[in-house]
Amino acid sequence: MATKKITQRAGFKTGEYIVYPAHGVGLIQSIEEQEVAGLSLELFVISFEQDKLTLRVPVAKIKSVGMRKLAEPDAVAKALETVAGRARVKRTMWSRRAQEYEAKINSGDLNAISEVVRDLYRSEDQPEQSYSERQLFEQAMDRMSREIAAVNKVTLTEAVKLITKSLNKSPRRVAKSDEADAEEAAA
Questions:
Q1: Exposed/middle/buried for 186, CB within 10 Å: 0-12, 13-18, 19+?
Q2: Is residue 64 within 8 Å of 10, Cβ to Cβ?
Q3: Cut 0.90: pTM above it
Q4: Mind spelling out the 3-state secondary structure of the chain?
Q5: Distance in Å from the first CA to the final CA of the chain
């Protein structure tokens, strides 16, 4: 199994952060040529620190798996605007909504992930989430914050704070806190 080092292929290069839909933000460690079952394959070697995972993706498969470059800063701004919008929760069965949320998270699309974060976010004064809601919210929040951290070159904690700040700008959440302030002032 001989390997040959390459530094750039199909618009991606080593040392670059990318988004792999099923795992989130990863770093291209190298691009190798390996012989597998008598065939020569070029592979991206991608590491995902958060999952302690190394993935080898054939160059020919990057389009079909949905691998993409990190979002542009204007796409990050749009995602933060989405998060600050009004939550849209359909009145369908939870199992159907959960499938839709899972599909959005695994799409790798930053805006779709931000919709999941927006729709599943609960502030302290709102009712408790179910276990599965919380799991999906945390998964979406993790994917979104990792991409924002990589794009803005900030820490994961700073990215989470940025998202939370946008979440708290939501019209519904602002209105509730204003109502509480008005009730306190009246008392």
A1: exposed
A2: no
A3: no
A4: CCCEEECEECCEECCCEEEECCCEEEEEEEEEEEEECCEEEEEEEEEEHHHCEEEEEEHHHHHHHCCEECCCHHHHHHHHHHHHCCCCCCCCCHHHHHHHHHHHHHHCCHHHHHHHHHHHCCCCCCCCCCHHHHHHHHHHHHHHHHHHHHHHCCCHHHHHHHHHHHHCCCHHHHHHHHHHHHHHHHC
A5: 77
Picking from 159, 141, 142, the residue whose alpha carbon sits closest to that of residue 150 is: 159
CA–CA separation, 116 and 125 (whole Å): 20
User: What letter represents residue 18's amino acid?
Assistant: I
Token pair listed for 105: 């998270």
Angle of helix 73-84 relative to helix 156-167, nearest 10 degrees, comes to 40
Q: What are the tokens at 96?
A: 């159907």
pLDDT tens sequence across 102-139: 999 999 899 999 999 999 998 777 778 889 999 999 99
